[in-house]
Amino acid sequence: MNTLKANPLGLFALCNDQLPSMPGGCTRFVTRVWAHAALLYLSLVISGWQPGSIAIRQNVVRTLTLLEQMPAPELLRTMVWPFCIVGCLAEPGEEYRFRAMADALIPHRLFGAARKALEIMAEAWKYRDELTIDTDFAACVLASSNFFILVHSYSNFYNYSDMSSKPVVLILGSGPRVGAAVAKKFANTGYLVAVSSRKATGGKTAEGYLSIKADLSNPSSLPTVFDAVKAEFKNAPSIVVYNAAALTPPAGDNLFSIPPESLAADLNTNTVSVYAAAQEAVKGWETLAKDSKKVFIYTGNKQNTGIGPMLLTVTLGIGKSASAYLIGAADTQYSKIGYRFFYADERNENGGLKGMQLDGDAHAEFFSQLTSGEGEVPWHATFVKGQGYVKF
């Protein structure tokens, strides 16, 4: 008890272990902000409105500094009530700092509670010279129209914790066969699932997957896709599956009838966007816990190993070959720190090309094995349905 009197924040520290964990130490960070705000609020209720007192000013400055150090802007959703309490006591020169924190919330649908908090702050700032020691601050902040801020931000603390504790898989180019089977497999094993395609809805699918609309022929769209995943799930995807593909057939036997612009567009989908996705994946992995699985899987085929008899898929083959080299180079470089990259290539039992006979469930099962770290599988991960990795 004497320890708690000397250090009131210790009371919150004692309860901290009972809270759901967040990545990167966020649980303790959020708890500390709430602790400072709670003590500040109690001081106002007991002693009255005295924003200029030394004790209150010190607490405001300390909490504001903490808020500005939050690991991710969206974390503010879990601290709207502390944000509001401290903001109401801000001096004129500090107002812009609170606005900046709210403005940093992207996408804007996350901005609702913070906007309401800013409205309450603005009222306090507007009448700061008229407020006295007898002002009933509790009645103002806990008015029925504002009470949702406390409930919303406190419940978000737990929602954020629960969601951010689950691993995330992002499937780029999610079609009805491989993409759908892989999504179902990972969802059934506890992953939060995000799928991306040109036909995506921008909301949630019937299965509960985050559906992100994106044109993978435009490599610059990849950062937006990854940002959307992080905004929704509070975590970067630990598993990234690149399943998109594009091809432009030539006119008859004339290989060079394919317009260069078409080849470039197909290369964007088949290779350049793969590079962009891998780049974003690595950035995200750097923010995840060291013991989390970090795997990038590219849906390949046999075209990287030789020239087939058909010209129909030449632009696809060019892209597969280039991406195989990229995946091999990435795995060679990053596997030493636990980041794995795989060129997953389903084959017939005799090692032949599967072509259009790809098996979605076989891909899902093998991809799950790759992410679990089962066996010594190289980056060029050829596999056969029911057998797993088979070297050809």
Automatic annotation (TrEMBL):
Protein family per UniProt: Belongs to the short-chain dehydrogenases/reductases (SDR) family.
Lineage, top ranks: Eukaryota, Fungi, Dikarya, Ascomycota, Pezizomycotina
Descriptive protein name: Trichothecene biosynthesis transcription regulator TRI10
Keywords for the protein's UniProt record, in alphabetical order: Oxidoreductase
InterPro entries reported in the protein's UniProt record: Fun_TF, NAD(P)-bd_dom_sf, SDR_fam
GO molecular function terms listed in the Swiss-Prot or TrEMBL record: oxidoreductase activity
Pfam families xrefs: adh_short_C2, Fungal_trans_2
Gene3D superfamilies membership: NAD(P)-binding Rossmann-like Domain (3.40.50.720)
The organism of origin for this protein: Lachnellula suecica
Gene name, Swiss-Prot/TrEMBL: TRI10
